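User: Could you go from structure to sequence for me? I need the amino acid at each position, not a summary. Structure tokens:
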């Protein structure tokens, strides 16, 4: 396991721990600034020490060649985001996430955010707004600065993770699979818009990477569980992704006696979300809107055509590289005369689940698709690119430079 991978995962999990503890302190009515600062930082420090101690003997260093490519990736992204960054972020940032953070930064009036039911989506999980509110209080600034820093971290971390994890197998595939999102304006714009979709994509990628790590089962599933818990605490869609991930991997997890470790990794964000949903948040608008008309929507073939066409347009216009990778995998399966791997099937199951969300949605279908479908599919892109790279990295020409150049 690469040190860079571990440190990136730890940083992501630290964000989750801070947000969970900050929200729990608010829920308990604890407004002490000293305790608010110290408790989350102490918990993060304990987590860092645990993971470093657990991994000391298994960590490997990066080669200078890999670090040079990583530096190029980061420099390229910095140059690109400068031209597409909006001062206050996109619509979801200032209307939902950063607005929630402004409420949460006030320990006396934070519960008023749950009164904004019609437009504010106060049922949404709180990973981003709680973290932003925490740092807003610590540094005494508005939410935009910490929100932008978080957006930059998650956006830049995804290509770096993709590169670092694939470079050990094929430096060619690793470079390609990292450069694709690093040069994708759509991906970069969503990341610096201070939305929650790229952080969710990051945590889902972390879960997929974690179960493939060549480490002891207890650590592998602890990391995967933490990543899934972060998914759940980031967006409502995270519950769909975590549930599908669990269904596809539960057999292997149970076989390796990792179920307890998976739960231990996910327990804090799951409990925090339960407290939010049961104790404070109103009902979700999509769930509340399901009724007798839902059956009519499920049997309405015209809705399927509309959603399919919209998804197809997104795949061809904004995520064409992901579809090209899926096509390559399909050709490989035919050539090898094998069935698709479970991770590829897991990604397609997630696509189908999102597809059905729009079929049963009580919102105006065209509006709902236009305002969210591309971002939902983007949530799957990093994990899909990692899985595609895993499938093709063993092909002779692509693995040619696996040896000295990648490991020197």
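Assistant: Here is the amino acid at each position, in order:
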């Amino acid at each position: 396991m690469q040190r860079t991978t571990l440190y990136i995962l730890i940083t992501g999990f630290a964000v989750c721990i801070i947000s969970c503890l900050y929200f729990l302190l608010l829920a308990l009515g604890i407004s002490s600034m000293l305790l608010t600062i110290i408790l989350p930082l102490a918990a993060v420090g304990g987590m860092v020490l645990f993971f470093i101690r657990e991994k000391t003997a298994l960590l490997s260093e990066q080669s200078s060649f890999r670090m040079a490519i990583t530096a190029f990736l980061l420099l390229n992204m910095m140059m690109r985001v400068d031209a597409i960054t909006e001062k206050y972020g996109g619509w979801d940032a200032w209307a939902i996430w950063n607005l929630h953070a402004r409420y949460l930064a006030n320990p006396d009036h934070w519960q008023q955010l749950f009164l904004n039911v019609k437009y504010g989506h106060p049922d949404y999980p709180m990973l981003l707004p709680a973290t932003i509110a925490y740092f807003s209080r610590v540094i005494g600034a508005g939410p935009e600065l910490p929100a932008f820093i978080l957006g930059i971290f998650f956006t830049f971390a995804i290509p770096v993770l993709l590169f670092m994890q694939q470079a050990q197998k094929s430096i060619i595939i690793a470079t390609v699979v990292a450069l694709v999102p690093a040069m994708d304006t759509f991906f970069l714009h969503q990341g610096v818009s201070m939305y929650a979709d790229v952080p969710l994509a990051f945590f889902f990628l972390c879960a997929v990477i974690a179960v493939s790590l060549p480490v002891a089962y207890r650590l592998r599933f602890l990391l995967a569980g933490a990543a899934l818990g972060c998914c759940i605490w980031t967006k409502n869609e995270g519950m769909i992704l975590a549930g599908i991930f669990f269904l596809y991997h539960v057999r292997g997890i149970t076989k390796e006696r990792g179920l307890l470790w998976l739960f231990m990794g996910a327990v804090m964000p799951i409990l925090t979300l339960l407290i939010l949903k049961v104790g404070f948040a109103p009902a979700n608008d999509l769930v509340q809107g399901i009724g007798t008309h839902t059956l009519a929507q499920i049997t309405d073939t015209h809705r399927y055509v509309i959603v399919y066409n919209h998804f197809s347009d997104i795949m061809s216009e904004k995520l064409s590289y992901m579809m090209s990778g899926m096509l390559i995998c399909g050709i490989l399966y035919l050539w090898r005369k094998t069935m698709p791997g479970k991770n590829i099937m897991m990604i397609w199951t997630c696509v189908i689940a999102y597809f059905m969300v729009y079929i049963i949605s009580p919102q105006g279908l065209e509006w709902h698709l236009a305002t969210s479908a591309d971002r939902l599919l983007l949530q799957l892109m990093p994990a899909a690119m990692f899985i595609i790279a895993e499938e093709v990295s063993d092909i002779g020409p692509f693995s040619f430079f696996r040896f000295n150049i990648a490991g020197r």
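One structural detail worth keeping in mind: The two ends are 16 Å apart (CA to CA).
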